[in-house]
Please model this.
Amino acid sequence: MSSKDISPRLFLDDEFEETKIVPDKVVCLGMEFPSEDARREYFRAELRKKLPELKQIEGFPIGEDDDIINLSDPPYYTACPNPWLNDFIEEWEKEKVELEKEGIRKANFEVKTPYAADVSEGKNNPIYMAHAYHTKVPHPAIMRYILHYTQPGDIVFDGFCGTGMTGVATGFCKNGFENIYNNIGIRHSIIGDLSPIASFISYNFNYKIEINKIVNIARNIINKTKEELGHLYNCRLQDNGKTTNANISYVIWSQIFACPNCGKEISYFSLAVEQFAMKEKLVCPHCSSIVTKSSLEKCYETDINALGKLVTLPKYEPVLIKYNSKNKKSYTIPSKADIEIERNALQYLKSWIPNQKIKNGVKTKELINSGYSYITDLYTKRNLVVFSTLWERFKDYPILRFILTGILVKTGSKLHNVGFKNNTINLAGALPNALFVPSIFAERNVFELFESKLNDIIKMSPSELSTNVTQIHSATQLQTIKNNTIDYIFTDPPFGANLMYSELNIIHEAWLNLFTNSQKEAIENSLQKKGISEYTQLMTESFKEFYRILKHGKWMTVEFSNTSAAVWNAIQIAISNAGFNIAIVRGLDKQQGSFNSQTTTTAVKQDLVITCYKPTYKLIEKFELSLDKSINAMDFIEELLVHLPVHLSKGESTTTVIERSPKILYDRLISYYVQHGYAIPMDAQEFQKQLRERFIERDGMFFTASQAIEYERKKEKCSGFVPMALFISSEAEGIEWLKRELQNPQTYSDLQPEWMKNMLPPKKGDVLPELMLILEENFIKDEEGNWRNPDPEKAADLEIIRNRRMMKEFNMYLEQAQKPKAKRMKDTRLEVLRYGFKECYRQKNYQAIVTVGDHILESLLQEDEVLLQYYDIASSRI
Model:
C-alpha cells in the first residue's frame, strides 16, 4: 500500500558520477505511478492547486509557494496543512477490516484502564541522538503507551510532534521491544507541528531510506566538494624549516575587548585561559591592572558581510588551531596565511544563502543587542561557504539536508560554546534553548562534522515500515481531519514560557526559507503579548480539536514538563475545558536530564504524564436526553472508576490510587458539570452518601463491585499497604491529614507537634488557619478533650456550620473588593475562596466571582485550578 519504501532520489546527478537505479512502480492512495519521482511530481502539482485554500487555515507557514512545494513530499509530507489526511484515514480503516479477518486485531477492542506504571527510558539510543531538538521523548517510552492503548492498524495522532518520535514509535510497534510482545503490529500515525524545521525533522525520522545507497551518495558529494573547497580547512605548519599543510579540525576564536584602564585591545582567550584552564584573576597584559569581564569594553569592526551589507559586529580573532597531520593531532597558533584564508573565503561563495534578518524576540534580543542583524553573520565566512555549497548539492536528498540541519547551529555556527576543564578543551556546542555568541567559540570543520553525523545515521535502525503522514499545522485548527477518526493521541505540547520555539528555530528555518507562523504559537511570550491566560486559551483551542478528532471512549496521553503551578493548572483546565476526563497522573523519567535539570535545583527532574479519555457516546447521550442532569452524576462516576487503575504496588506493598479518593472523584464530577454548563448536582456530603450507596469502599478508595474483588485479590499478594503521602500546605490538605491522624482520637497537644512537622509553606496569598480553628470547624471534641472524626450523621451538621462561617468570610472579601480604589488582598483563605466561588456560581452571581478574583493575588488565582475554572466561566457570562 505504501510507496515509502523507496527514497526520494537514490541516484546521483551526472556531476557526481551518476549511478542509475531503476525504480519499481509505486502505488499511492489507490493510484499507480511508474516511479517515486512521478508520484511526487503529480502530488506536488495537486498541492500547488490547493495552496490558496490551505492558506486560510491557521498556522500556515510564512514563506513562498515554491519553497513550500520544494520542501514537501506529498501526500506523505506537506510543508503546510496536509489535504490528504482523510484519504489516508479512509485507506487505513479499510485495512483494519482485513486485519480483523486475519485475526490480527479485534473488532471489540477496548482499553478500560490507563497505563499506570511510571516510565523510565534513557535518551542514549541512536535515533534519539541523531538530531538535536529543544525537547524530545524517547520513542521506546512512547511505544509503551501505544502498545497499551492501541492495536495493530490503529491510527495515532500527535499535534505537537516536535521531531516526530511518536511517528517513530508507531513504526517500531511492529516487533515490540524488551518484554512487551503482546499486541504488537504496525500502527499508523498522523503527526504535525507548527514549526517547519520540526516537521522537516519529523519527516526524515519517519521516512524509510536505503542506508547504503544514500551513504554512497553523501560520500560522493562530500568528496567532490572537498576537492573544490577542502583547502579552506588547510593550515600551514613549520617543520624543520619546511612548510607543510595540515587539516584543520577546529579553530578557537576569541572575542577582543579593550582594557578599561589602558584602553588597549585584549584577546579574552589570552586574558582568561592558561594551559586550557580558566584563570582565577584577569590581569591586563599591557598595564597589569586587575579587571573583571563585566568591566571590559567590547571592540567592534565594520565589514561587508556575505549578503553585501555593511555590518558592525563584535570583533573576534582566531587564536588556536587544532589540526590533523599524518596521524598527528596537535595545536598551533594561526599564521597570517591561515587568517587570510578565512578572511578571503567569500570569493568561493557561489550558492544560495539565507537573507533573513534576525527578528526581535525574547531569545533573539541578546544577538541583536550584540550587533548581529542577519542569520549569515552567525557563521564564519569559511563555514558559510561550505554549508551553502552542501545545502545546494543536497537539495534532492532530504535525508542529507536533515543531517546538515543537525550541525547547522549546535556545532557549526558561532554559537558553539567552548569549555575548559581538567586542562582540556571541551567542545560543548551551542547551549541548549539559548541564542548567543560566547566570548570564546569553536569553528568546526564542516566536513568532519557531517561525516560524524552521517555515521550516527548509519547506526539508526529504521522501522520496518514507515506509516507516518506529516504536516505543518496549528493544533488549534485541524480541519483536514474529520470528527471521531483517531484511535489514540500521544502528545508533548509546549509548556508556558519553557521554550520560545519560533525564536529558537529561526536559524534552521532561515535555511529552509520557511518560517513558523507564531500567531497561534501556544507559549507565554511578552513580545507576542501572550501571558498565562492567552496560553491557556490556545491550549484549550488545541485540545478541543484533539477532542473532536478522537473517537469516543479513546485515550489521550499528555507529557508535561514544567515547574510552574500556574502552567500545570492551565494544562489541566485546558484538557477539562475541551471535554476530556482526566484519569491519572504518573511520572516519566527520561533519565538523562536536560541542561537545565542538571544545573538548577528547581528544575523538573521527572516529567509528568497526564492520562485522560473522551467520554463514551453512551454517557454523552444520557446527559443529552436527561432534563435533570443530576441523575447522571453516578453514571459519570462509574465511567470514571472504570477508567482508573484498580491496584498499584510499590515494592511489595499496595499503594493508594489517589484518583479513587472521594475528594478527587468529587472534583472531577464538579469539573465536568461546570464545563458543560450544568448545575452542580450535589454538595460534598450528598456526593459521599451516594458514593457509598452505589460503590464499594476499600482503604479510603471507591470501586465498582468487580473492581473491588480484583483489588482484594491483588492486595492479598502484597505484604503491606502504603497510604498516600500527605503534607500540609493548604487547608484542604490539613483536613485530610487530620482525618487520617484521628482514626484514633487524640488531644490537641498530641496533634500539634506532628502537625508542625508536616507543615509546608502555603501558596502565596493563601492563609493556612490555625490547627485549633480547623479542628473546631471539622471535627468533634469529646468530654475528655480528645478530637475525633465526626459521625456520618453529625458530619452534615458540621458541614452546614462550617459553610456558613466560610460564606460569611467570603462576603467580607467581596465587600473589601467592592470598595473604591480597592487593592489586591494579600492574605485570603483558599478554601473560603473555593467555597464562595462555588456558591456564587450556583446562585449565578458571576459578577461576585470576577470582582473577588480580580482582587486576590493573581498567582493564587492562576495556580489553583478550581478558582481559575470558576473565574474563567464567570468572566464569559457577565
In short: Confidence is low (pLDDT under 50) at residues 1-22, 591-605.
